[in-house]
Design goal:
alpha+beta, three-stranded mixed sheet, 48% helix, 20 helices, eight-stranded antiparallel sheet, globular
Length: 493
């Protein structure tokens, strides 16, 4: 009898210390199906590594790593991943803590705390409130937020205040409060307000008020220092293969997307949301503030994110709306060219999960990008008792792209050869001109700026650059030939 008791205790202890431990009340078969789905998708799409954590009202229930960090080390519960725009929720929580303390008023204008704040419209500058920023309804554009993210000058060290002061000539897309438009700059502005009223950098605030109280020991506010602490290597998919790529982020963008965290740490954060602002019996923020963060606030909107269509309203650092088979969910996406992170809350069952991927595919084709949304949608579906979505893997999607790129380049090369060989000057100019017109139509139709395309999908940018080179080559050769001709006697008369 005593040996049986010891065996049972040993089994329980082993289950509690195992990275993929199952707590009492969980369906082991369901979690096995979730793990099998994630691993199957990872292997099929050549994704180096994924981390997953699942929580409910009773605590962290399942943490699992899949694959490796790009250096040969297996992903585990404590492997740090960049979480990108999931950081916005942390900034919103800091704002709510300041509101609880009576330091901030959600409906106060930004200029109450930053009198020097300006956008191009002077009147609109006075009307933008903290609520507008939290709900992504300030009128600041998505494009301006992306440009701030990709601009080399910003990535080299612009501060939060410097980025905000740089908004002085920025036009708004619409009047404050009129409609939803996601912009990184909204949360940069919130970071500037927090720094001003506290007298501390945003990085110090999030460490003191969230990371340390939640014992998020494998989290960091700076990707550079996180690399020294074992952050996973990141990868950009190019022609269907993962290529390692460093992460560079400006300090000024910290409030909108710089946090690094492990799956186990993010599980603690999701538990704070599920438990209405408490962790281990200690309250970090009022329950009402958590309700406000998770409540739908913006006008309804629709967006296509990583190949999946979403209808939603925005709360405060959270999207509110259906997510896969879950009719009501709270979720957010963190997404840069070399990684993807998702966090999802399912209010009906008081469950949540985080899924982080150390690679991304920026190719603007639904089949390619949908793989990165299929993973979290599949986990949500399985938790709700539904089958996960299916679709082509990344290599399958890229195979079609690679074939189309090869055929297009061969076609442009053939056109260039015909144009060079054409005896009639009309054809020599007409074929390249038609090719260049096609490129102009592409830029106009897609709205993709060359810098944006290069940052998000360098493989497509390379193919387009080569095709453009073939298209322009006959014109260059003709120009060189014309300029290099010796004058004839007739031309000298």
């Amino acid at each position: 009898m005593s040996l049986s008791v010891v065996a049972v205790l040993a089994a329980v202890l082993a289950s509690l210390t195992h990275p993929g431990a199952l707590a009492q009340g969980l369906d082991a078969a369901l979690l096995q199906r979730i793990d099998a789905f994630v691993e199957r998708e990872r292997e099929a799409s050549r994704i180096p590594g994924i981390a997953l954590a699942i929580v409910d009202a009773d605590g962290t229930r399942h943490v699992r790593g899949f694959g490796d960090d790009g250096r040969g080390r297996p992903i585990d519960a404590d492997t740090p991943f960049p979480i990108g725009s999931l950081t916005k929720s942390f900034t919103a929580l800091l704002v709510r803590q300041a509101i609880d303390a009576g330091v901030l008023d959600v409906d106060a204008p930004v200029q109450r705390h930053l009198p020097w704040f300006r956008v191009a419209d002077e009147q609109a500058s006075r009307r933008i409130t903290l609520r507008h920023l939290l709900n992504q309804t300030s009128g600041l554009s998505r494009d301006a937020g992306m440009q701030a993210l990709l601009h080399d000058k910003n990535r080299d060290g612009a501060s939060v205040e410097a980025l905000v002061r740089g908004m002085a000539g920025l036009p708004l897309q619409h009047a404050p409060g009129e409609r939803y438009e996601y912009s990184n700059l909204n949360f940069v502005l919130l970071g500037a307000v927090l720094e001003t009223v506290s007298g501390k950098p945003w990085t110090t605030l999030v460490r003191e008020r969230i990371l340390d109280p939640l014992q998020m020991r494998h989290s960091d506010t700076d990707p550079a220092s996180a690399r020294l602490a074992g952050m996973t290597r990141l990868h950009r998919m190019a022609f269907g293969f993962p290529i390692a790529e460093p992460l560079r982020l400006s300090p000024g963008l910290a409030p909108t997307g710089s946090l690094v965290a492990s799956a186990s740490d993010m599980a603690s954060y999701l538990r704070l949301m599920i438990d209405a602002g408490r962790v281990d019996g200690r309250r970090l923020v009022f329950a009402h503030s958590i309700e406000q963060m998770l409540a739908p606030a913006s006008p309804p909107a629709r967006a296509r994110l990583l190949g999946a269509e979403f209808g939603f309203r925005y709360g405060e650092g959270w999207f509110v709306g259906p997510f896969g088979a879950a009719a009501d969910a709270r979720w957010h996406l963190g997404n840069l060219p070399s990684f993807v992170a998702w966090m999802v809350l399912l209010p009906a069952t008081r469950q949540g999960f985080v899924l982080m991927i150390n690679a991304n595919a920026g190719l603007p084709l639904d089949d390619a990008s949908a793989v990165l949304s299929r993973l979290p949608l599949g986990v949500a579906n399985l938790l709700r008792g539904h089958a996960p979505p299916s679709g082509p893997s990344l290599p399958q999607a890229y195979r079609r792209f690679n074939l189309a790129a090869a055929l297009a380049l061969a076609g442009f090369a053939a056109l260039a050869w015909l144009a060079v060989r054409a005896r009639r000057s009309l054809w020599a100019w007409l074929l390249p001109a038609a090719s260049l017109a096609l490129f102009a139509a592409f830029w106009f139709a897609t709205g993709l700026r060359p810098t944006m395309l290069l940052a998000m999908a360098p493989d497509l940018a390379l193919v387009l650059a080569l095709a453009l080179g073939f298209a322009g080559l006959p014109l260059v050769l003709r120009a060189i030939g014309y300029l290099g001709r010796k004058p004839t006697r007739r031309s000298l008369r």
